[in-house]
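Dissemination and training. As part of the outreach component of the grant, students in the summer workshop were shown how a complex can be specified as a set of sequence lines and then modelled as a single object. The example used during the hands-on session is reproduced here so that future cohorts can follow it. Participants entered these lines:
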Amino acid sequence: MSRLQAYLDKLKAKQKTALIPYITAGDPNLDVSLQLMHKMVSAGADIIEVGVPFSDPMADGPVIQRASERALKQQVTLHAILAMVQAFRDKNTQTPIVLMGYLNPIEVMGYEHFAQAAVAAGVDGVLTVDMPPDEDARYLQIIKQAQLDPVFLLAPTTTEQRIQKITALAQGFVYYVSLKGVTGAKQLNKDSVKNKLDIIKKYTALPIGVGFGISDADTAAIVAQYADAVVVGSALVKRIEAADGDVTKIVNDIEQILRSMRTAIDAIMP
Amino acid sequence: MSDQVIDFTQYPDESGHFGIYGGRFASETLMASLDELQHAYKKYLQDPEFLAELDADLHDYVGRPSPIYYAQRWSQKLGAKIYLKREDLNHTGAHKVNNTVGQALLAKRMGKQRIIAETGAGQHGVATATVAARLGMECVVYMGSEDIQRQALNVYRMKLLGASVIPVSSGSCTLKDALNEAMRDWVTNIDNTFYIIGTVAGPHPYPAMVRDFQAVIGREARQQILEKEARLPHSLVACVGGGSNAIGLFYPFLNDQEVDIYGVEAAGEGLHTGKHAAPLCAGKPGVLHGNRTYLMEDEGGQIIPTHSISAGLDYPGVGPEHAWLKDVKRANYVAVTDAQALEAFHDLTQTEGIMPALESSHALAYAKELAAKVDKEHIIVINLSGRGDKDIHTVANLDEIRIT
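and obtained this result:
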């Protein structure tokens, strides 16, 4: 069993909801990203999503788009991000890491090469927004053979037939996109999230993470009532942007909001 | 590729692939809508009532069939028989409207009230705003803030037609970023919105659907040239940005192996300078905007800025069917520079009294090169995809003439 799956299973046994922060690697630079990863763990993160910047982030709202632009201005590459993950693993062998991004940087590196390099660096799961599971069987096979967990998105618009198909192929956890829209949008509807999660649970025992639209401790707590994991991205990236390069402020602000989310999530547990 | 004969009418396959190209590399939220679109499009393409309405619109509203014109003086000058397929004579002045008329009828059948589109030079935006006005639908057009500066006239045209033009200032502030933003709108407003993509790119079924709506160009041209010459042309030439006018002309001839096919990309300041928009000639396969195709990208897979004198060719990708036609060697992809295109613009204007769009001028410029290599009975059909009025300011600037 993978580190990701084992970790989530352990949390589930304790009836604890996982907190999964997302940051874009290289925003504002890779040194700060590495520092943030450690800090996020001490602030209560269970799993870390490391965003791989892309020039054309079609599924992202303005906050993460700008983070990608800042990272790309630093010439951040997938290779450099894997090196950062490896550096993280020197001090932390416990916290699962999921790479999240778009397919093309992986496509250009070559699927086999990428999968081997990612595993060697200590990556646990891969989520490629624009690579649905039914598009390319070869990709899925290579990812799985390398012992990486392919994480897939489910959306409010996903039909039951597709839910069945996707959950059968997914590993680690499935990521439910809580709203119709892009990352960082605001119109989270808790009833519709609950209803859809009930449907998804009919088809899979995999843990379900919920993201897109978790903006603060309150929304995190609401989602934590139904989900196995809460994913928070834009709310963090917004604070990184606002700190405007002040590293101490970035680290403190991220720590503070994650702690408040952690507390809020844990408070609703039975 | 093997010697086995390909039946080009059988592509793409069920999942939208042309060989390794095409596909549906889209985020999950879009999948249900893409399925819905595919079903509707397949259904209505067989529906006699839908087809009759489309034909009537193309005839009465767009002005089809567009003529094929024997450019006698230019032919004599170049030493080949040059025919121009006059898409510039369509309503709104380019081939783009063939597709927007078709997709808008589909949107109406599917009960969608709101239409969105991306645009680069503004031709597709204008063609979309036009059909939206006619059908009384809400229309939102995304356009890069750079392009809004360069194409002020088309921005105003769209506004006159009642469309909202939304500036996009992310990334390179051009067409590719407008497409990203239109996709983001679509994911957000998926229930009531129909996204009219303007070229043969995007996730399946767009490349096939836009091709099928544009293939009227090639069907007409095939019949017209048979009437005039009692034979098929030796060569077809069309410019390729995303590639919709080109595939529209090429598609009905793909199984006619004796017809040579040339797609002309924008070499900008020259392929060696890196300042161009020629992914087929100088790019590599990758995945962008929902499909696998040739792209202008750096070694890390990031999309790089493009350059062309013509905003309509200024795009880092290309339709997946072209990528495949290149690999199976059914079509030849070549490139001409800004300077060559500009020269052809002036040539045609002065020799035939037809002012071509700068996009189409790329096809004309390559036809000049081709004509020099063939005998004078060689029949070349060029897709004159649009008229040049929209480019007058660009041309005047380059010629250092100020128009007030």
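DSSP finds twelve helices and nine strands in chain A. Students were then asked to discuss how this feature might be tested experimentally.
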